[in-house]
C-alpha cells in the first residue's frame, strides 16, 4: 500500500484536512466547499494589516488567510450561528494561528455598530439566495438565504468597517453577481478584480470572485476552470490551491 493511501486512511470524517490545519464542520450548516477554498486562496493579502471574515462558519477563510498573510496580521471572524462559532473557535484553537484569530459569536450588523476597529481586508462567503424553499434546517436556511443579512446590509457593514483604501472580497453565483455588482456600484464600490470560475474548460462560468474597493481602478478580469477537458484538476486550479489541498 502506498504512503499516500496510508494518509488517506487516517483522514478524519468530521471535517476537511488541509496541509497545515484541519477544519471540523459537522456542526456547521455549510460545509467546507470549493467556493470558500477558491476565495481563501485567491484573495489578495500582501497589503493586509488587519483582516475580517464575515459569516465565518467553520472558520475556513480566517484560517486560510492566516496561513497566507504575514504573521503579525490579526484576524477577526464573525459568525451569528452559535454552533458554528463554537466549532470555529475549536478549529482556531487547534491551528497554528490561535494567537492571531479571534472568533465573535455575533450578528455582523451589531458588530459593525459597536466596533471602532477598521480593517484593510474584509472577506465573505455570504448567503446567496433570496428567501425560498426551506432547507429543513433553520441553521442551513440562515447560511443560504439573505433573510437575516441582505446584500445591501452586508455592503453597509463593510462600508462601516473597511479602511478607505481597503479591499472587500466575496464569492457569488454568476446570476447573483449580476445584481450584486450594480448594487455595490450604487453605493460607490468599484470592482478591482474579477475571477470567473467554471467547473470545466468547456463549461460556462458558474461562480464569480470579486475584489471591491471604494477607490477607482481599472478592473482586472480573469477566468479559471476547475477541471480540464479530461476531468482532471486544471493546472491553474492546482497552482492556486496547492498550498492547501493534500496530495496536490
Automatic annotation (TrEMBL):
Subcellular localization is given as:
Cytoplasm
Q: Which GO terms describe its cellular component?
A: cytoplasm
State the EC number(s).
2.1.1.223
Q: Write out the entry's keywords from A to Z.
A: Cytoplasm, Methyltransferase, S-adenosyl-L-methionine, Transferase, tRNA processing
This chain's function reads: Specifically methylates the adenine in position 37 of tRNA(1)(Val) (anticodon cmo5UAC).
Single GO MF annotation: tRNA (adenine-N6)-methyltransferase activity
Task: Specify where it is mainly localized.
Answer: cytoplasm
Q: Per its UniProt record, what SUPFAM superfamilies does this chain match?
A: S-adenosyl-L-methionine-dependent methyltransferases
Q: GO:BP terms for this protein?
A: methylation; tRNA processing
Catalytic activity line of the entry: adenosine(37) in tRNA1(Val) + S-adenosyl-L-methionine = N(6)-methyladenosine(37) in tRNA1(Val) + S-adenosyl-L-homocysteine + H(+)
Short name of one Pfam family: MTS
| Recorded superkingdom | Bacteria
Query: CDD domains annotated for this entry?
Result: AdoMet_MTases
Domain named Methyltransferase small is located at: 47-128
Organism name: Pectobacterium brasiliense
User: Per its record, how is this protein called by name?
Assistant: tRNA1(Val) (adenine(37)-N6)-methyltransferase
Lineage start? Bacteria, Pseudomonadati, Pseudomonadota, Gammaproteobacteria, Enterobacterales
Q: Which InterPro entries does the annotation name? A: DNA_methylase_N6_adenine_CS, SAM-dependent_MTases_sf, Small_mtfrase_dom, tRNA_Adenine-N(6)_MTase, tRNA_adenine-N6_MeTrfase
